[in-house]
Protein: Prefoldin subunit
Organism: Raphidocelis subcapitata
Amino acid sequence: MSGRVTDDPQLKKELELKVNTLRVEKAELDHLKPDRAVYQRVGNVLFRTDKARVAKTVADKLNAATTQLDQLSGGGASGSGAQR
């Protein structure tokens, strides 16, 4: 096989939930005031960090989850992340 993810409905549902959760997290970060404190979880510890670093981490996770979901769905539409 070429490394494709199996067509598992439960896995697809979990990935869709993860993508939606990350979209909400990204939207909340985008609407924070510039001087607002932002914390990032590392293990079981929260660290205060800057908004740009957390936004980049969330965007990277969102891109990875969206790519994985696209592979699971057949890899067709690259613009499938534009639903709302």
The two ends are 33 Å apart (CA to CA). The beta strands are 38-42, 45-49. Residues 15 and 47 are 27 Å apart (CA to CA). The chain has a mean pLDDT of 84.
